[in-house]
Structure formats: structure tokens, C-alpha cells
Structure to design on (557 residues):
């Protein structure tokens, strides 16, 4: 169990870390690690790998917005039905059910403001059960997935200390 | 009268005779070179966790810029006593059994000064932190080293300790997990040492600075054993666990009479530790645990890598249970510790510290700190492996 957690911690930092590298860090052997990762993938504990990069490099991701959505829960299915329906749109990159002043937080990516705005007004807002939306466009990123995007300057250390 | 020769005679003999730390010479040498990968660093490579830095900033913003009580702020002492109680199961009163100092170094200095009369013998284990013997000498005490050995995993053998006890023995210094060996004590050894201390009526200075960085099961502090709280000075600080070396905050907990004596020395020499740093330290105890555990986890991974690489290149290296040092045996290269370190530095630009800097029984070993990035460790290990191969080829 402990090894499983340790593997997940390492993968959270570096999804491309090799089983061999992990084995050395965790004082285990490569096969045990590889088997464990396979098991985690089968169990859907690990459900994918992707790179973190400057998304503006891709034109289709140039603009990102967070949309607060208020919905009317359905008698059978509550929030899930609408949420699942929304999550199928490829423009939606993340979707969460929230506590507080609104119900769903939807992260949408697009080529430009217009594309995102069009998606919200023509697709999202028109779904039966969606009561209102509030769209917030992202202006600048400071931290994502636990990584600071502006590294701190390295600090000066003495080379040899007792 | 003012040339340096004539002034030298005014230097107190017991200070003039103090040897300079072996680390100092080596530091000077490393400093003349560029692009060195240093495994010679005795401090965390992490920056102090943000929540702690932020607390320091906030403290300054609020205008908390004054002296504090000589003992340290009451709220920090309370936090320390709570922490020691929770983590070590020893209960101290924040009012008179705890003092906040400028690093555990000062706490150690105060303890030695408070207890040492001229001629008192103080026992410590070697290889050890470079200051112990010097501190004892500065207080006109007599340092009595007891060697520890690789075959015992560098733990202090209680029988060796007892053989060093004389009627003049005043105290025993224990530093486990140990700098430079990473050694820890077993419960059985700790109990046996406690028994010796009680039998001969000795004080124990327990330097716990690396205790949080214990990778296996943590051995209880000797202060928590029966009859030991009243004869132990529990020394600890924030530098290693919370990556706060530059804040310079340490502390001592112990019997009220001893803390009171230490407080007198502290009052006349230091007055108090920086209030900003004290506020930061309080935050470390209140909200720093997760960051500390994450750093510890990273050290554990690095330890596995460095131990496996050193053994792989034929430098036998125990897997230490604590601190962030490993202490590989380099005798198979036919070199002295110092030659090994100097040649490795000159030829491969990797800095390690000769084991002899930590006492004569450290000869034949070098200290490698893994408080540096894993990438740096791997590169250093590659270079060291090349070096060892070359040296063996030359023999």
C-alpha cells in the first residue's frame, strides 16, 4: 500500500519517470514497480498521462474560461445528468460540481474569445435545466497543477558547511 | 605594539590552541573552483516553506520588531512544549523548562557553559559534529571522545561509553540521528545509555536536530525514559526539519534549574533570538508539518539512490536511518579521506567532506550530503564512479 502511494507521489511530480528510476528511489525493483503501475492503470486509479505545457502554443487552446453554471437538478439523476451531458463537449476541459453560490464549474478552452462565448451562448446556456451562466476569462497563469510558473531565483548557499 | 605578532600573545591560550575546523580548509579550497557539485552541504537544499516565510513577512508588517523575553516569546515556547510532548512524549513547562536560542548551536553552547567547571570531562561520540570538542574546550572542560564503528552501524556502544566514564565525568552528548554518519540508536542502546547515566549520576545533552529526518521507526528520546527527564537537556531546532537554517532558531528543554542557568548566559551574551525568526518558527510548528513530511519523503528517495550508487561503485556504504548524510567507506581506494576528497574535487569537481574532519575515527570515510537535488546527486555519483575506477586502475 505504501509503495502504491509512493509511486503515485512520484508520478504526480513527473509522469514520465521510468520504472527503473522509481525503483532506485524507492529501494524496490523495476518489475515490482512496473507491475504496480499496470495494476493502477487497470484499476483506473491512474487514468491518463499528459504533459503540462504553455497551452497558448496550441491555437485551439489560446483562450481559457471558467464558467459558473447554475442548474436545476432533475428528479431522477440530480446534477449528474446535465453534468455528464456537458462533459461530453470537447471544448470542456474540466467540469466540477461545486458547493456554494453556483452548481457546476466548467473550464472551457477555445481559439479566441468569440469561440468560447459562442460555445457558452449557443450550447451551454441553451441546455434545458441550465438556469444561468457567468463566464470568467483567464488573463494570466501563475501556478498550475502544483507548479509555479515563475520559478524563484536560486538562493545562495555555502558550498561546504558542517 | 600593534603588529600582529605582538597581539597574538594577548589571545587566550585555550582559544589560540583550538584547531580550526577541518571543514573550513576544505571550504576554502572548494570556493576557489567553479561548477562544483557539492555533496558537502550540511543544510537542506529546500527553501523554507512558504507558509513560514509568509509568517515572517507578516510579523515584520505588523511591526513586531522588538526584543522578546530572554526565554523567547511565550507563544513559541508553548508551541515548542506542545510539539515536544506530542512528538517525543516528554512534558515540559513553557514557563521555566524551555528556552529559545539562536540555533541549536547556541542552545548547545549555553548548555555546556551552564554545566561545565574547569576540568570536567564531557563524553561525546565520534565521528561527530565539528563543534562539540571545541565548545567543551572553550568552557575549560575536557572533551572525551568515544569512537563509533561501521560494524556497529556507527551507533554508540554503551560498553565503550561506560569505559570512558571517570569520577570527573559530568555529561554525555548524544547526537542521533548523527551528523556525519546518519546513525541512529536502538531502543535497547538508548535504555542502556540511560542506565549508565543514572548509575554514574551524569547529565545527558541530547542533540535532536536531525530527529524528524528519521526514515524508519523513530527511537524515543532518552529524555522520555524513566528517571531521565531530570538529567537530560533536550536540544532541538528548526534548521533541518523545516529548512530554516538562516532563521537561526533552536531551543533547549530541561530541568528548570538548568534552563535558568542557561538563561543567565543567554541573557548576558545574546539577550534573545530574533522576534521575526521566532514568529516564523511558531508557524513552522503550527502549519509546517506537511511541508516537512514532503521534504523528508524526498530525502528518503535520495538516500536510496545515493546508497545504491555508492555500493554499486564498490564504496561500502551503510543505509543510514536518519539525517541527510551517508558515510561511505573509501579505504579500498588506498587513499586517506582527505586525499580522496581533494583529488575527487580537483579531478571531477565533486565536493565531499573528509571523514577525518569529524574526528580521527572518521578516517577512511567521507561524508556525502544528499541535501541536494536528485539530478545533482546522480551526476555527482557518475563522476565519483569514474573517479573510483580511475584510481583503482592507477593502483
Amino acid at each position: 500500500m505504501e509503495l502504491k502511494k509512493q509511486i503515485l507521489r512520484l508520478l504526480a511530480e513527473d509522469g514520465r519517470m521510468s520504472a527503473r528510476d522509481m525503483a532506485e528511489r524507492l529501494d524496490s525493483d523495476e518489475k515490482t514497480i512496473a507491475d504496480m503501475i499496470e495494476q493502477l492503470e487497470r484499476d483506473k486509479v491512474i487514468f491518463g498521462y499528459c504533459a503540462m505545457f504553455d497551452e497558448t502554443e496550441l491555437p485551439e487552446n489560446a483562450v481559457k474560461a471558467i464558467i459558473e453554471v447554475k442548474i436545476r437538478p432533475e428528479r431522477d439523476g440530480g446534477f449528474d445528468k446535465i453534468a455528464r451531458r456537458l462533459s461530453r463537449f470537447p471544448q470542456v476541459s474540466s467540469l466540477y460540481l461545486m458547493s456554494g453560490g453556483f452548481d457546476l464549474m466548467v473550464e472551457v478552452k477555445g481559439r479566441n474569445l468569440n469561440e468560447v462565448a459562442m460555445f457558452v451562448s449557443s450550447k451551454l446556456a441553451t441546455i434545458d435545466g441550465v438556469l444561468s451562466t457567468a463566464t470568467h476569462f483567464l488573463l494570466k497563469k501563475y501556478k498550475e497543477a502544483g507548479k509555479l510558473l515563475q520559478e524563484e531565483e536560486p538562493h545562495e548557499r555555502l558550498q561546504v558547511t558542517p | 605594539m600593534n603588529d600582529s605578532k605582538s597581539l597574538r600573545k594577548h589571545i587566550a591560550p585555550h582559544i589560540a590552541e583550538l584547531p580550526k575546523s577541518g571543514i573550513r580548509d576544505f571550504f576554502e579550497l572548494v570556493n576557489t573552483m567553479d561548477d562544483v557539485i557539492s555533496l558537502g552541504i550540511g543544510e537542506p537544499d529546500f527553501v523554507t516553506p512558504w507558509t513560514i516565510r509568509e509568517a515572517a513577512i507578516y510579523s515584520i508588517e505588523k511591526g513586531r520588531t522588538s526584543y522578546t523575553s530572554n526565554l523567547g516569546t511565550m507563544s513559541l515556547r508553548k508551541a515548542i512544549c506542545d510539539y515536544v510532548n506530542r512528538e517525543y512524549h516528554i512534558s515540559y513547562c513553557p514557563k521555566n523548562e524551555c528556552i529559545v536560542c539562536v540555533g541549536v548551536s547556541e542552545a548547545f553552547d549555553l548548555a555546556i557553559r551552564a554545566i561545565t567547571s574547569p576540568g570536567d570531562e564531557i563524553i561525546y561520540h565520534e565521528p561527530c559534529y565539528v563543534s562539540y570538542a571545541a565548545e567543551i574546550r572553550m568552557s575549560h572542560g575536557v572533551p572525551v571522545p568515544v569512537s563509533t564503528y561501521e560494524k556497529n552501524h556507527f551507533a554508540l556502544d554503551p560498553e565503550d561509553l561506560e569505559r570512558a566514564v571517570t569520577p570527573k565525568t559530568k555529561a554525555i552528548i548524544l547526537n542521533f540521528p548523527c551528523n556525519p554518519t546518519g546513525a541512529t540508536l536502538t531502543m535497547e542502546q538508548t535504555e542502556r545509555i540511560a542506565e549508565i547515566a543514572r548509575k554514574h549520576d551524569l547529565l545527558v545533552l541530547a542533540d535532536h536536530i536531525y530527529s524528524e529526518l528519521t526514515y524508519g521507526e523513530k527511537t524515543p528520546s532518552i529524555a522520555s525514559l524513566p528517571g531521565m527527564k531530570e538529567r537530560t537537556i533536550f536540544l532541538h531546532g528548526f534548521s533541518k526539519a523545516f529548512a530554516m537554517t538562516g532563521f537561526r532558531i533552536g531551543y533547549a528543554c530541561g530541568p528548570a534549574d538548568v534552563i535558568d542557568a542557561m538563561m543567565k548566559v543567554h541573557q548576558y551574551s545574546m539577550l534573545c533570538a530574533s522576534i521575526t525568526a521566532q514568529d516564523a518558527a511558531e508557524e513552522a510548528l503550527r502549519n509546517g508539518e506537511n511541508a516537512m513530511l514532503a521534504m523528508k519523503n524526498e530525502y528518503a528517495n535520495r538516500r536510496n539512490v545515493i546508497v545504491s550508487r555508492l555500493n554499486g561503485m564498490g564504496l561500502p556504504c551503510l543505509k543510514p536511518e536518519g539525517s541527510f548524510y551517508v558515510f561511505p567507506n573509501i579505504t579500498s581506494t588506498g587513499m586517506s579521506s582527505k586525499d580522496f576528497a581533494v583529488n575527487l574535487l580537483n579531478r571531477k569537481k565533486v565536493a565531499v567532506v573528509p571523514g577525518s574532519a569529524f574526528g580521527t575515527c572518521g578516517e577512511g570515510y567521507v561524508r556525502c550530503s544528499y541535501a541536494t537535488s536528485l539530478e545533482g546527486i546522480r551526476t555527482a555519483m557518475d563522476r565519483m564512479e569514474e573517479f573510483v575506477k580511475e584510481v583503482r586502475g592507477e593502483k
